[in-house]
Amino acid sequence: MPEPLLRAESLQAWYGRAHILTGVDLTVGRGEVVALMGRNGAGKTTTLKAIMGLIEARSGRVTLDGRPIDRLPPHRIARLGVGYVPEDRRIFADLTVEENLEVGRQPPRPGAPVWTPEKLFDLFPNLAALRGRRGTRMSGGEQQMLTLARTLMGNPFLLLLDEPSEGLAPLIVRQMAEAVLRLKAEGLSVLVSEQNVGFAAAVADRASVIEKGQVRWSGPMADLMADESVRRAYLAL
Ligand code: ATP
């Protein structure tokens, strides 16, 4: 088996004295979409933050393309080609859509798709109509799309997407799923945390299911969909 693009082994994380991740093991292969699933509070957000270096108190091993990144600060990990999209939409509310995109612009990266505002407006047609609008006058779904679009302006080859469907209307959830599939078609690899089984089933090749800070089940997304006992044990149905 070729070395996966991202590998986390025995990843642990603490908030103060609270031991939140007690040993997360997962991989994301090149060009693969992996859904990190689990109930509220299972540790999905914490896992993405720990991979991105956003949690100081962490241990274990994380490699990107075989290179250890578990001692690097978030900006160095970002510079290596990892894009992180938090679940709370982080746009610059007093900048327009186009200005928000410019803030995210980075030089092209060998081996990763190159994004321009025009290409992103093609990916998110909703944003095209709003290009001159300020963030304060956008819906939650539009802000979520803009947060993702701005991260793509950094030309990452791996995306860490935290609950992109949360709080969005069904139509917007569908558009978000289509966007993730297009990112995969462009060659991006994605680790997406999700509680929405329908969304995960639509986008993911594989799933890792986390409970109480550990991955309890990993396998093809289709196997998870076929195995109701696993879904009942670890997911909110
Ligand atoms: P959700 O869907 O609710 O975001 P999650 O699976 O992403 O769930 P996490 O946000 O990773 O879960 O939280 C895992 C655990 O860590 C929870 O018990 C949560 O209460 C706790 N936790 C999260 N953030 C902090 C913090 N800043 N300080 C202390 N505990 C925290």
Automatic annotation (TrEMBL):
One Pfam family linked to the record: ABC_tran
Domain of life assignment: Bacteria
Gene3D superfamilies given in the database record: P-loop containing nucleotide triphosphate hydrolases (3.40.50.300)
Entry-linked PROSITE patterns: ABC_TRANSPORTER_1, ABC_TRANSPORTER_2
ABC transporter domain sequence ranges: 6-237
Gene Ontology molecular function, alphabetical: ATP binding; ATP hydrolysis activity; branched-chain amino acid transmembrane transporter activity
GO annotation terms (biological process): L-amino acid transport
SUPFAM superfamilies per UniProt: P-loop containing nucleoside triphosphate hydrolases
Listed InterPro entries: AAA+_ATPase (IPR003593), ABC_transporter-like_ATP-bd (IPR003439), ABC_transporter-like_CS (IPR017871), BCAA_Transport_ATP-bd_LivF (IPR052156), P-loop_NTPase (IPR027417)
Alphabetized UniProt keyword annotations: Amino-acid transport, ATP-binding, Nucleotide-binding, Transport
PANTHER family: ABC TRANSPORTER ATP-BINDING PROTEIN (PTHR43820:SF2), HIGH-AFFINITY BRANCHED-CHAIN AMINO ACID TRANSPORT ATP-BINDING PROTEIN LIVF (PTHR43820)
Similarity annotation: Belongs to the ABC transporter superfamily.
Name assigned to this protein: ABC transporter ATP-binding protein
Taxonomic lineage from the root: Bacteria, Pseudomonadati, Pseudomonadota, Alphaproteobacteria, Rhodospirillales
